[in-house]
């Protein structure tokens, strides 16, 4: 298993009596394309932040790639995340005045183990493979379409060949045609790199693309399901 949650509880300070996340056991098999759906405010982003160490639970253990996050310092978690975890954000979080290559290079900068092996040529090859024209690679990303910006976001998340890729509602602003194209590209790249994918969305119609599908409500003990695989 690439991920294991054990008796994990997380509450925001104003809601200590009602945990947002309350998971007895949850595991993700390596290489899986895992889809989690739930409504706005249900805790999807909180779960992902726990999964990559951006938030820390008040109780329990989170193990990712054999490492227990609660035993690591913030600096160790930052290094671990940069080396092993890719993240595709809902709003892409690109720097508008940087071009595509420069945005992807930011991910390489944060990963000390990849700085020497990844250069502009390799980044260009990945962007072209993802469907970005060479004439667009050197434009500020603010001049690119939403679909092109998405490809830059995928490239940034995949450039370090992460073992785990997290996607937080990246298709929410897309029409159906562009959404399906995005998912096909993303899943193909995950298969090519043997990357485990955890994808969250409010849109249940996306579930056909994934190996395992779960509602976030199933995760929490108070909703009647203590173990989720």
Secondary structure topology:
Elements: E1 3-10, E2 21-28, E3 33-37, H1 44-51, E4 59-64, E5 67-68, H2 74-84, E6 85-88, H3 100-109, H4 120-129, H5 134-137, H6 146-158, E7 164-168, H7 176-193, E8 196-201, E9 212-215, E10 227-228
Parallel strand pairs: 2-10, 3-8, 3-9, 6-7, 7-8
Antiparallel strand pairs: 1-2, 1-4, 4-5
Helix pairs in contact: 3-4, 3-6, 6-7
What is the structure about, briefly put?
This protein is of the alpha/beta class and 229 residues long.
CATH superfamily membership, which one? P-loop containing nucleotide triphosphate hydrolases
The overall pLDDT average reads 85
Oligomer: single chain
- Counted up, domains total 1
Overview of this structure, please?
One of its GO terms (molecular function) is ATP binding. Keywords: ATP-binding, Nucleotide-binding, Transport. The chain is of the alpha/beta class and 229 residues long. It has one domain: Rossmann fold (3-Layer(aba) Sandwich). Helix content is 32%, strand content 22%. The protein has helices at residues 44-51, 74-84, 100-109, 120-129, 134-137, 146-158, 176-193; strands at 3-10, 21-28, 33-37, 59-64, 67-68, 85-88, 164-168, 196-201, 212-215, 227-228. Strands 5-4-1-2-10 form a five-stranded mixed sheet. Strand 4 (59-64) and strand 5 form a beta hairpin. 35% of the residues are buried.
